[in-house]
Amino acid sequence: MGMRISLVEKAQASPVVQRIYHALELRSGSVAPYFRVLAHKPDVLRAFNQLHAAIWADGALDAKLKHLAYLRVSILDGCGF
Length: 81
Known about the structure:
Blueprint: H1 15-28, H2 33-38, H3 42-56, H4 63-77
């Protein structure tokens, strides 16, 4: 079995991470496991959260098209969506 990285739960998270979790919950309804892994490095979590928010903000591409692109890249990389 390979090595596993623990998820940072809200109760054990630093105040900075708890604020980011709260923003994620407001935006998407939950905190994805990927963000909980990044929470081990709050600066990385903050930067990725800003990038993620910018990508998913309303803009030139419809949200459905963004989801299709996400799905296509996941399939090409052999990852589960």
